[in-house]
Write a structure and sequence with these properties.
Blueprint: H1 7-13, H2 19-23, H3 31-38, E1 42-48, E2 54-60, E3 67-70, E4 73-77, H4 86-93, E5 96-102, E6 109-119, E7 138-149, H5 152-157, H6 174-183, H7 189-202
Antiparallel strand pairs: 1-2, 1-5, 3-4, 4-7, 5-6, 6-7
Helix pairs in contact: 6-7
Length: 205
């Protein structure tokens, strides 16, 4: 195995990009970025702890739920989840975050990097209300880098083509996974699935 350990070694394999690739980072939320964010119902948030351990947390809401406050700030509501708050714990110790916005049917993605603050209340919280539920927390992101990412990854994966999707019956259910991973002995996978379905139906917000 040949390990790549330096950027010089990396550049022997992957050539330097053109200047235009560097220049596509505009470092602010312009009109195009506002439109894309407004149409994205799903964003991935990457964080890291001071020791280098990382987390990527998915956030989903109706399109338009991520608020653009101005050209350099956006706000993402927290919704009920598993209470681990791995990403939030990271942000408290290391504010650097990376965001990836996805829009169904669109192969390009929007990449945003910056620093984040965890807030428990602000005037904009009313605008983060969904189904009558006001969030308890939100992530306020100060945008430092912003650029469109090319379509190749999603094109290679055929992510938006239903005909390429696996038959769900060939995959384990969440209940089966949890039962085996956690070691539940007194509850069936079927019951776990029922409980998860009920929680998803009644505790989204």
């Amino acid at each position: 195995m040949r390990t790549v350990r330096t950027e010089a070694e990396l550049r022997e394999i992957v050539r330097e990009p053109s200047q235009a690739i560097w220049d596509k980072d505009i470092g602010r939320i312009d009109a195009h970025a506002r439109t894309l964010i407004a149409h994205s119902p799903f964003v991935l948030i990457a964080t890291s702890a001071p020791d280098g351990t990382c987390d990527v947390s998915p956030k989903g809401d109706p399109a338009g739920s991520v608020l653009v406050l101005d050209d350099h700030r956006l706000a993402i509501a927290d919704r009920p989840g598993n209470h681990r708050v791995d990403g939030f714990r990271n942000v408290l110790r290391n504010p650097h975050v990376g965001l990836l916005f996805l829009i169904p049917g669109m192969s390009e993605t929007l990449r945003v990097n910056g620093s984040a603050t965890l807030v428990s209340d602000a005037p904009f919280f009313d605008d983060l209300t969904v189904q009558g539920k006001r969030p308890r927390l939100a992530l306020l992101v100060e945008v430092e880098e912003l650029y469109m990412h090319c379509a190749k990854a999603l094109l290679r994966s055929s992510l938006w083509k239903p005909e390429t999707w696996p038959d769900r019956k060939t995959l384990p259910t969440a209940g089966q996974v949890f039962k085996d991973h956690i070691g539940f002995k007194d509850v069936s996978a079927e019951q776990i699935d029922k409980d998860l379905d009920l929680d998803a139906a009644t505790n989204r917000y």
